[in-house]
Amino acid sequence: MAAFRLANSSGAEMIETDVRLTKDLEFVVHHDRNLGRTTNGRGSVWKRNCSEITHLDAGFWFHPRFAGETVPSLRGVLAWLPPLIGLNIEVKTDGDWRPRSLVARRLCAILAESFTDYRRLLVSSFDHRLLRCIRAVNPFIPIGVLYMAVRDAGRKPSVLAGCCGASAFICSRAQIRKRHVRDAHAHNLDVNCYGVNTQAHLATVVRHGVEGVITDFPARMVHLLRSMETCEPR
Hints:
Blueprint: H1 2-9, E1 14-21, E2 27-29, H2 50-53, H3 74-80, E3 86-91, H4 100-114, E4 121-125, H5 128-137, E5 143-146, H6 149-152, H7 157-164, E6 168-172, H8 178-186, E7 190-194, H9 199-208, E8 212-214, H10 218-231
Parallel strand pairs: 1-3, 3-4, 4-5, 5-6, 6-7, 7-8
Antiparallel strand pairs: 1-2
Helix pairs in contact: 4-5
Protein backbone atom coordinates (compact mmCIF):
# COMPACT_ATOMS: atom_id res chain seq x y z
CA MET A 1 0.00 0.00 0.00
CA ALA A 2 2.92 2.34 0.58
CA ALA A 3 3.82 2.03 -3.10
CA PHE A 4 0.24 2.68 -4.19
CA ARG A 5 -0.04 5.77 -1.98
CA LEU A 6 3.25 7.08 -3.36
CA ALA A 7 2.13 6.49 -6.95
CA ASN A 8 -1.08 8.38 -6.26
CA SER A 9 0.70 11.34 -4.67
CA SER A 10 3.23 11.37 -7.53
CA GLY A 11 0.53 12.03 -10.11
CA ALA A 12 0.22 8.58 -11.66
CA GLU A 13 -3.01 8.17 -13.62
CA MET A 14 -3.22 4.44 -12.99
CA ILE A 15 -1.82 1.81 -10.64
CA GLU A 16 -0.76 -1.65 -11.83
CA THR A 17 -0.70 -4.58 -9.44
CA ASP A 18 -0.40 -8.36 -9.57
CA VAL A 19 -2.95 -10.52 -7.78
CA ARG A 20 -3.31 -14.23 -7.00
CA LEU A 21 -6.23 -16.29 -5.75
CA THR A 22 -5.92 -17.68 -2.22
CA LYS A 23 -7.12 -21.01 -0.86
CA ASP A 24 -10.36 -19.43 0.37
CA LEU A 25 -10.99 -17.77 -3.01
CA GLU A 26 -9.96 -14.21 -2.21
CA PHE A 27 -7.33 -12.25 -4.12
CA VAL A 28 -4.14 -10.87 -2.60
CA VAL A 29 -1.55 -8.54 -4.07
CA HIS A 30 1.39 -10.83 -4.72
CA HIS A 31 3.69 -11.38 -7.69
CA ASP A 32 5.42 -14.70 -6.92
CA ARG A 33 3.82 -18.12 -6.71
CA ASN A 34 5.40 -18.60 -3.30
CA LEU A 35 5.48 -16.33 -0.29
CA GLY A 36 9.09 -16.82 0.79
CA ARG A 37 10.98 -14.25 -1.30
CA THR A 38 9.06 -11.13 -0.31
CA THR A 39 7.33 -11.99 2.97
CA ASN A 40 8.08 -13.74 6.24
CA GLY A 41 5.74 -16.57 5.21
CA ARG A 42 6.23 -19.80 3.32
CA GLY A 43 4.38 -21.90 0.79
CA SER A 44 2.23 -21.27 -2.26
CA VAL A 45 -0.31 -18.47 -2.26
CA TRP A 46 -3.11 -20.81 -3.31
CA LYS A 47 -2.47 -23.07 -0.31
CA ARG A 48 -2.99 -20.29 2.26
CA ASN A 49 -6.09 -18.38 3.30
CA CYS A 50 -6.37 -14.67 2.70
CA SER A 51 -6.32 -13.79 6.40
CA GLU A 52 -3.06 -15.67 6.86
CA ILE A 53 -1.36 -13.90 3.96
CA THR A 54 -2.56 -10.40 4.78
CA HIS A 55 -0.91 -10.62 8.20
CA LEU A 56 2.52 -11.35 6.73
CA ASP A 57 5.27 -8.74 6.66
CA ALA A 58 5.94 -7.83 3.03
CA GLY A 59 8.11 -4.74 3.54
CA PHE A 60 11.16 -5.77 5.52
CA TRP A 61 12.94 -7.41 2.56
CA PHE A 62 12.84 -4.16 0.58
CA HIS A 63 13.99 -1.69 3.24
CA PRO A 64 13.90 -1.55 7.05
CA ARG A 65 11.61 1.47 7.03
CA PHE A 66 8.90 -0.66 5.38
CA ALA A 67 9.03 -3.39 8.01
CA GLY A 68 5.50 -4.17 9.10
CA GLU A 69 4.00 -3.36 5.70
CA THR A 70 1.58 -6.22 5.15
CA VAL A 71 0.29 -7.95 2.01
CA PRO A 72 -2.86 -6.16 0.80
CA SER A 73 -5.98 -7.96 -0.31
CA LEU A 74 -7.58 -6.89 -3.56
CA ARG A 75 -10.66 -5.83 -1.60
CA GLY A 76 -8.43 -3.58 0.50
CA VAL A 77 -6.94 -1.95 -2.58
CA LEU A 78 -10.39 -1.42 -4.08
CA ALA A 79 -11.66 0.15 -0.84
CA TRP A 80 -8.68 2.55 -0.82
CA LEU A 81 -8.61 3.40 -4.55
CA PRO A 82 -9.00 7.18 -5.00
CA PRO A 83 -11.85 8.25 -7.28
CA LEU A 84 -9.68 9.68 -10.07
CA ILE A 85 -7.03 6.99 -10.40
CA GLY A 86 -7.29 3.87 -12.57
CA LEU A 87 -6.39 0.31 -11.67
CA ASN A 88 -4.71 -2.29 -13.86
CA ILE A 89 -5.08 -5.71 -12.23
CA GLU A 90 -2.69 -8.31 -13.61
CA VAL A 91 -3.98 -11.75 -12.64
CA LYS A 92 -1.27 -14.37 -12.06
CA THR A 93 -2.26 -18.02 -12.46
CA ASP A 94 1.03 -19.85 -13.09
CA GLY A 95 1.31 -22.90 -10.83
CA ASP A 96 -2.35 -22.75 -9.76
CA TRP A 97 -4.19 -25.89 -10.93
CA ARG A 98 -7.71 -24.60 -10.28
CA PRO A 99 -10.11 -24.01 -13.20
CA ARG A 100 -9.70 -20.65 -14.93
CA SER A 101 -13.48 -20.33 -14.96
CA LEU A 102 -13.42 -20.30 -11.14
CA VAL A 103 -10.74 -17.60 -11.03
CA ALA A 104 -12.72 -15.53 -13.54
CA ARG A 105 -16.00 -15.83 -11.64
CA ARG A 106 -14.41 -14.85 -8.33
CA LEU A 107 -12.64 -11.86 -9.81
CA CYS A 108 -15.70 -10.59 -11.64
CA ALA A 109 -17.85 -10.96 -8.52
CA ILE A 110 -15.41 -8.93 -6.41
CA LEU A 111 -15.04 -6.22 -9.04
CA ALA A 112 -18.81 -5.94 -9.43
CA GLU A 113 -19.03 -5.04 -5.74
CA SER A 114 -16.73 -2.02 -6.19
CA PHE A 115 -17.45 -0.64 -9.66
CA THR A 116 -20.67 0.69 -11.13
CA ASP A 117 -18.83 1.10 -14.42
CA TYR A 118 -15.44 -0.13 -15.48
CA ARG A 119 -13.89 2.90 -17.18
CA ARG A 120 -11.09 3.14 -14.57
CA LEU A 121 -10.30 -0.56 -14.74
CA LEU A 122 -8.12 -2.84 -16.85
CA VAL A 123 -7.71 -6.56 -16.17
CA SER A 124 -4.66 -8.13 -17.78
CA SER A 125 -2.86 -11.46 -17.77
CA PHE A 126 -0.33 -13.60 -19.56
CA ASP A 127 -2.96 -16.35 -19.21
CA HIS A 128 -5.08 -15.74 -22.28
CA ARG A 129 -7.40 -18.62 -21.43
CA LEU A 130 -8.27 -16.81 -18.22
CA LEU A 131 -8.92 -13.60 -20.13
CA ARG A 132 -11.38 -15.42 -22.37
CA CYS A 133 -13.15 -16.73 -19.27
CA ILE A 134 -13.37 -13.23 -17.79
CA ARG A 135 -14.77 -11.94 -21.07
CA ALA A 136 -17.41 -14.67 -21.00
CA VAL A 137 -18.43 -13.89 -17.41
CA ASN A 138 -18.49 -10.10 -17.79
CA PRO A 139 -17.99 -8.65 -21.29
CA PHE A 140 -17.96 -5.10 -19.90
CA ILE A 141 -14.65 -5.43 -18.04
CA PRO A 142 -11.80 -4.00 -20.16
CA ILE A 143 -9.16 -6.59 -20.98
CA GLY A 144 -5.43 -6.15 -21.62
CA VAL A 145 -3.57 -8.99 -23.32
CA LEU A 146 0.03 -9.47 -22.14
CA TYR A 147 2.61 -10.53 -24.72
CA MET A 148 4.92 -13.45 -23.96
CA ALA A 149 7.74 -13.52 -26.50
CA VAL A 150 8.48 -17.27 -26.37
CA ARG A 151 4.83 -18.18 -26.87
CA ASP A 152 3.50 -15.26 -28.92
CA ALA A 153 6.38 -14.42 -31.28
CA GLY A 154 5.11 -13.75 -34.78
CA ARG A 155 1.51 -13.15 -33.70
CA LYS A 156 0.17 -9.66 -34.23
CA PRO A 157 -1.30 -7.68 -31.33
CA SER A 158 -4.63 -7.61 -33.13
CA VAL A 159 -4.69 -11.41 -33.32
CA LEU A 160 -3.79 -11.87 -29.65
CA ALA A 161 -6.31 -9.25 -28.57
CA GLY A 162 -9.00 -10.62 -30.86
CA CYS A 163 -8.77 -14.05 -29.25
CA CYS A 164 -9.50 -12.54 -25.82
CA GLY A 165 -11.74 -9.61 -26.66
CA ALA A 166 -9.02 -7.28 -25.38
CA SER A 167 -8.90 -3.52 -25.84
CA ALA A 168 -5.20 -3.16 -24.93
CA PHE A 169 -1.94 -4.84 -25.92
CA ILE A 170 0.77 -4.90 -23.23
CA CYS A 171 4.44 -5.77 -23.66
CA SER A 172 7.80 -4.92 -22.16
CA ARG A 173 9.94 -2.01 -23.24
CA ALA A 174 12.44 -4.44 -24.78
CA GLN A 175 9.70 -6.14 -26.82
CA ILE A 176 7.99 -3.12 -28.32
CA ARG A 177 8.25 -2.69 -32.09
CA LYS A 178 6.80 -0.06 -34.40
CA ARG A 179 4.96 -2.78 -36.30
CA HIS A 180 3.22 -3.78 -33.06
CA VAL A 181 2.00 -0.25 -32.49
CA ARG A 182 0.89 0.18 -36.12
CA ASP A 183 -1.09 -3.04 -36.03
CA ALA A 184 -2.63 -2.28 -32.62
CA HIS A 185 -3.69 1.23 -33.60
CA ALA A 186 -5.13 -0.02 -36.88
CA HIS A 187 -7.44 -2.20 -34.79
CA ASN A 188 -8.29 0.45 -32.15
CA LEU A 189 -6.10 -1.11 -29.45
CA ASP A 190 -4.17 0.84 -26.84
CA VAL A 191 -0.52 -0.12 -26.39
CA ASN A 192 0.94 -0.17 -22.86
CA CYS A 193 4.62 -0.78 -22.16
CA TYR A 194 6.14 -1.94 -18.86
CA GLY A 195 9.70 -1.68 -17.59
CA VAL A 196 9.97 2.00 -18.55
CA ASN A 197 12.23 3.40 -15.83
CA THR A 198 14.67 5.88 -17.40
CA GLN A 199 14.56 8.93 -19.63
CA ALA A 200 15.98 6.87 -22.50
CA HIS A 201 13.33 4.19 -22.01
CA LEU A 202 10.60 6.82 -22.03
CA ALA A 203 11.92 8.53 -25.15
CA THR A 204 11.88 5.20 -26.99
CA VAL A 205 8.30 4.23 -26.13
CA VAL A 206 6.97 7.76 -26.71
CA ARG A 207 8.63 7.73 -30.13
CA HIS A 208 6.82 4.47 -30.84
CA GLY A 209 3.50 6.10 -29.91
CA VAL A 210 2.33 4.03 -26.95
CA GLU A 211 -0.65 5.10 -24.85
CA GLY A 212 0.48 3.80 -21.46
CA VAL A 213 3.76 3.63 -19.56
CA ILE A 214 4.17 1.21 -16.65
CA THR A 215 7.07 2.16 -14.40
CA ASP A 216 8.66 1.55 -11.02
CA PHE A 217 9.28 5.30 -10.70
CA PRO A 218 6.03 7.20 -11.29
CA ALA A 219 7.25 10.58 -9.97
CA ARG A 220 10.22 10.48 -12.33
CA MET A 221 8.10 9.53 -15.33
CA VAL A 222 5.43 12.14 -14.59
CA HIS A 223 8.13 14.82 -14.38
CA LEU A 224 9.75 13.67 -17.64
CA LEU A 225 6.43 13.50 -19.47
CA ARG A 226 5.49 16.99 -18.36
CA SER A 227 8.90 18.26 -19.44
CA MET A 228 8.43 16.67 -22.86
CA GLU A 229 5.02 18.28 -23.22
CA THR A 230 6.36 21.76 -22.46
CA CYS A 231 9.13 21.27 -25.03
CA GLU A 232 6.78 20.34 -27.87
CA PRO A 233 6.45 22.99 -30.61
CA ARG A 234 3.19 24.88 -30.62
